[in-house]
Amino acid sequence: MSNSSLSYVLKAKTDTENPGILMQAGIDSSSAEMTIYVLNYNPDDKHLKIDPGKWHISAAPATMRSLYAAGPLSSNTVSYPGEIKSINRSVAIGKSGKPSFVVPAWSVNEIRLSLKGK
């Protein structure tokens, strides 16, 4: 999806509340940005709440890039174009400091959050 700028991987886990969700989070070398990669291999969209732990998220909107498919065996072909799509969007961050996102079904996602500091 991108050339990762991560210098430190903070956590990689399977979401126990949402089976079929795999996540990995890390920060860049300047500790100015947290990147979270999310894989959703479910047939439906999933709502995720992110707890940044000791990291303080700034109020700046997050950027979210998604690559998603119509199904687990989808491919773009002449007969069925548009089975795999991408979307880039900006997501507002709430005052709670624990942002939430909706990740599309059958998707790979990159979420970038600006940090205030440690």
Please, could you describe this protein's structure?
- This protein is an all-beta fold and 118 residues long.
- It is 0% helix and 50% strand.
- It contains no helices and 9 strands.
- The strands form 2 sheets. Strands 1, 2, 3, 5, 6, 7 and 9 form a 7-stranded antiparallel β-sheet that branches. The chain has a two-stranded antiparallel ribbon with strand order 4-8.
- A hairpin with a 5-residue loop joins β2 and β3.
- The chain is elongated.
- It starts with 7 loop residues before the first strand and ends with a strand.
Task: Estimate the global geometry from the Cα principal axes.
Answer: elongated
Secondary-structure-based class equals mainly beta
Largest sheet: 7 strands, antiparallel
Order of helices and strands: EEEEEEEEE
Instruction: Give the strand content.
Output: over 45%
SS field, number of helical segments: 0
Number of strands: 9
Average pLDDT: 84
Rg (C-alpha, Å): 15 Å
Key attributes of the depicted protein:
9 strands; single chain; 118 residues; mainly beta
